[in-house]
Batch of 4 targets.
Target 1
Amino acid sequence: MKSTVLRSFKKAHAIGMFVLAISLLATPVLMPSVGNAQDARVAKTMAALKDQTAKLGAPKIDGIDEVGGRDAPALYFGSTKMNNNFSVVDAVAREGGRGTAATLFVKSGDDYIRVATNVSARMGGGRGLGTILTGAPLESIKAGKAYYGKASVLGTPYVSGYEPIKDASGATIGVYFVGYTK
């Protein structure tokens, strides 16, 4: 009798430890995190930005253009150059409602330069053109992944989403950004 109870206890203990180990391993996968949590408003606005640019044609880089005081590769969707062109980002931001921001970045070496945006620069006003993507969103994009979560954009906190813009060959040539201030 004593050995049966002992075996049952050991079996229950082993099962309990197994369940505990599995739950600890599963927790990071199941918990919402910056990398996989998507805010519904951000997801809807990202879909709108990608839809608006897709209507123009496939993304590509062709030539160099001055943006915000620096030279940047010229980002195109179809035949429409996006550098210094605010029609798409402004329309998406209007559609997203108060506090919504939209930006297109182009890849330049290891940097991503803001070439079309409705985000204001803090100093001197105007649009934050020519500024560089930084922080956790940059690290995710460099790893080939989207970033969804909180991010500081030119000093303002946003609930945001960043996704890579890929050309016909699958190479990342830029970044879509949408977000809103709370």
Target 2
Amino acid sequence: MATVQRTIPAKEHIYLEGPKSRTYELRFACKVFSQFIKGFRTLHFVGPCITVFGSARFKEDHPYYAAAREFGKRVAELGFTTMTGGGPGIMEAANRGAYENGGMSVGCNIILPHEQKENLYLTKSVTFEHFFVRKAMLTKYSYAFIIMPGGFGTMDEFFEIVTLIQTKTVTQFPVVLYGKSYYKILIDNIHFMAAQGTISEEDMKLVLSTDNVDEAMQHIIKYISTNYTIKPRKRAGLLFERR
């Protein structure tokens, strides 16, 4: 029988494989805590962010890459920091748009055996080992979320955000689903779920599906300007905080 070659190689260490020794679990918990602290210290002063999610696989000549680059530019013009997963594709495009227009461009990278490498358009970056730490950082510092076309990872991030909003775990920040044709089946299925009573139509009130960058930015500006006050954070010398 022929050996099947993995498209995506497995990581060497998989922590979700059942109980290990209590010593191992304690070391793991400490390691996760240290990653959170590293993320807090790196990102605490990057300013209010707008996070752009999307596939790492779109190339520079793709229309979605061009749209993400325009989003990065517009976010920079608003005075916000563009935050992404720090990798190639859509992430690179959004960071590039911000970077090329004098904006703050931040990446929360992840250690993977495929695809992921830090793009060249970051003014600040931090690399994590675990997805759940990275997702917490991508959510924690953002006032709005732009969901570009993507795969499983992008869907995971989108549904986690709307779940957090639905359960009032985070403030009701605006969410943009960019790519009407790409997300048509998903939106139709969400409306079907609402009709079945498993979710409420209200849960999708802050989610805008659009193909128009101007419309997307107006949706974001409307909710941010109406509902939120952004306050600068002060640095504490005793904590060795610096830019």
Target 3
Amino acid sequence: MAYIETNRPISAIFADLVSQSTALVRKEGQLARAEMSEKIGEIGMALGLVVGAAMLLIPALVILLLAAVAGLAAVGLAVGWASLIVGGVALVIGLALLAIGVRRLKAGRFIPTKAIARLQRDAAVAAQQVRNDHGIPECAA
């Protein structure tokens, strides 16, 4: 525990409070930047995987859709109707996946929640210190 001089003038206590608060805000800012950098790295990795998957999945999907059209045509359905049915089903599934993806990309997921929680906790502790005789511990009676 740090030694706190009890005979210090208010101006010295206030100067210490300001310098410690400044240092705390600076450190919390560094932590928030580090957390955001980590989250941006995660987003970059995820986007790279999505692009790689799309490069393989799009041609595969086209081939499978063509096979579905050919299968329906082989059963006796006209090629135009088979194409319309397969295209409509693919459209509905694609729209559902798009809606789910957009919902998951909400901006709130990328807020540095840990850093904000630490700042709120630090602000509460600082406010408590100011209320308790400017950080001077109370004497036991």
Target 4
Amino acid sequence: MTPKLTALFEQVYQELRPIAPIPAFEIRFFRFANLNNTIRLREGRILVRLSDLLEGAPEPVLHAILHILVAKLYRKEIDASHAARYRKFTGSQAMTVKTHIIRQMRGRKRIEGPKGQHYDLEEVFDELNRHFFHGLMARPQMTWSGIHARQSLGHYDPAHNTIVVSRIFDRPGVPRYAVEYLVYHEMLHLRHPVKLRGSRRCVHPVAFQEEEKLFPHLEQAKKYLKQL
């Protein structure tokens, strides 16, 4: 725990809890597999773990991160300027590249495989590729999730170049258009990577939204997903 981090934490704590005495605390950089930062209160002691990707980050950025963590711990309102500063720094091209490399090196991606009992994700991808992209999109790894996830129905992981679809869709009664829509949506994420506009991440740009409207069963699929 460096003197700079100690001083920053004490400053942030006093800003958010000016009357309360500063408790015992420990802050250190940790080798996470991603750009993670955590804070916990254990037996009256605050434990902070910052991603080692943030070593060397400018002091205002570290201040912003500590502010966000302490505010979350004590359910305080997060200052918008600190939130914007953190998003801008972590969403920069340099940090995006570093995070991508670290996830590839340290992260583990569990691949269950594309063939389910009812649907083959590679077959679904190839059909969508021919129909919407003239067969020109390189197919990433395709896999069903290991669990029947309902919070994350599908996602594209750029670090491992993998499209994951929740296994809850590999069962009788699930319409094919629902599976196709999930895969198509993630293919659009592959085609339109997340970009930073100012301090905000642009996840679904206009081009993404326009191409999504080309899916013939869009409204049916969205209605079906809302029922889950």
